[in-house]
Every structure is written in structure tokens, then in C-alpha cells.
Amino acid sequence: MEIVTKDIINLDLKTQDKNDAIRQLGQLLNKAGRLNNLEGYIQNVIKRETLTTTGIGFGIAIPHGKTDAVKDISVAIARLHEPIDWASLDGGKVDLIFQLAVPESSKGDEHLRLLSALSRNLIHEDFRNKIRTSQTAQEVIDLISQSLTKALEV
Amino acid sequence: MNEVKPINLVGVTACPSGVAHTYMAAESLETAAKAAGCDVHVETQGQIGIENQLSTAAIKAADVVILTNDIGIKNEDRFKGKLVLRVSSGDLIGKSPIIVKKLMAKLAEV
């Protein structure tokens, strides 16, 4: 299964706070058949969030759960209707969420390389800007696959 | 005051789950160091395992070693006797350009 598909992207997510955003994205992942246990996954992501914030700055949050509650390694993507607080490292609000779902036993998985390449891409402003101005979920997927292909060739 | 010159940097990044911060921190440090004209090598210790392992030569040539302090770094004894800076992966993600600039300025004073 691809790590990101149209059904786990929401380009206009309406939410007021981070736990609700995590839950909504969890529900998207669950509906797409990518989880074994929705509640277990959500609790794992929220628990991870209490260790250190995943608000990495630049308006981006990367909440993640690594647990057996996940069936297939995935990244759900949301652009928010209104930016929300995420206790970000730079103090700014978050308008773009990349929520990762990783099975506990995914060691050595090729998909982990995709996630690491995506994480690296998020550091670059032009990549973030392109995601922010994408018109459709397909455009987001194309952007990500292009950049990942490039990253994996090197 | 001496002239600020490009420096040789090596780093190792790691984080609790090893899927995202590790790589963002590495990319951010590499990007900032290259932009400042520095030579840079960053090893990642993530869920995938160790990648871009630092060579003995790179460590020897390094003016400074940057290690993330979120979780323990493997094989830290390689850096014995080197100047080591410990920062969080979050700081590298957000502030690498400032960190690199400060290191360059600091080393120019020596």
C-alpha cells in the first residue's frame, strides 16, 4: 500500500485544538483501513505528544504514533481551515499537519525511508510552500512522490 | 578579532521514535552548514538503523561535533577529545542557521 493516498488527505480540516485534529486524522486513517485499533492509535499519538511537542516550527506539526494499533505505515495530511496552537518550538501556530502512523514492527521497512525522505523535505521552504498552495489532494500526492523519487535516487 | 571562516562539522542525530525528527534535524543542519560554506557530514541513528555513518577521516577533520541530546547516541566514544556541542533535535530543526553561525564565530576567536 502507498504511504499516502487521496482518502487520507484533508485540505480544509476544521478543528479548534490539537487533540481533536489528531483524532480526526486518526479517523481518516481508520476509515481507509490502515489501523487495527483507532483508540489505541490515538492514545499512542497523544502520549507521544506529551513527551515533546511535534510542532517543529514553520507552521508544521508531525504528530506520530508507533504502535501495533497501526496496520499499514501511513502519513495522513491536513491543511487547516484556521491555524491552531500546537506548543510549537518557534511559538507559531500550525496550519499543516503530517500525521504519521507506523507499525511497531516496521524495522528495516522500505516505507520508513519514504518517511525519512518526507521529513527531510519538510525542512525546505519551497516544498512547504508548494504543499500550502496545492489545489487538490492529487497535487499534494504528486508533489510528494516527485520529491521522494528524487530523494531516493540520490 | 579573527576572520570568520567556514568550518568542518560532523553531527549525529537521533530521536525517541526515530522516524521524523532524526531526519529533519540532519537535513536542517546539512542545509544550514552548506549555505554557510562549511563542510558537513551528518549521521542519522533512526528506526532504519545507522545511515551516512561518519568516517574516521571526517571525524578527525571536524572542528566541532554536534550531537542531539533527545536520546543516547550510539558509539559516542568516537568523539573523545573533540569539541562536542549537544542540542535538541528541535533546536537543530528550527535554529541550525543560527547555531552554525555562532559556532563559526566562536571558532574564529580561538
List keywords for this structure.
heterodimer, A: 154 residues, alpha/beta, Mannitol-specific EII, Chain A, six-stranded mixed beta sheet, 21% strand, B: 110 residues, Rossmann fold, 3 helices, 5 strands, globular, sugar transport (chain A), PTS IIA family nitrogen-regulatory protein PtsN (chain A), phosphotransferase system (chain A)
Task: Tell me about this structure.
The complex is a heterodimer of chains A (154) and B (110). Chain A is an alpha/beta fold and 154 residues long. Chain A has one domain (6-153): Mannitol-specific EII, Chain A. Chain A is built from 5 helices and 6 strands; from the N terminus they run E-H-H-E-E-E-E-E-H-H-H. Chain A has helices at 18-31, 38-51, 110-122, 125-133, 137-153, and strands at 9-13, 55-57, 60-61, 64-66, 74-84, 94-102. In chain A, strands 1, 2, 3, 4, 5 and 6 form a 6-stranded mixed β-sheet that branches. In chain A, strand 2 and strand 3 (60-61) form a beta hairpin. The longest helix of chain A has 17 residues, at 137-153. Chain B is α/β, with parallel strands linked by helices. Chain B has one domain (10-109): Response regulator (Rossmann fold), CATH 3.40.50.2300. Chain B has helices at residues 21-35, 56-61, 89-109; strands at 8-13, 39-46, 49-51, 64-68, 84-87. Chain B has a 5-stranded mixed β-sheet with strand order 3-2-1-4-5. The interface between A and B is medium-sized, with 28 and 23 residues.
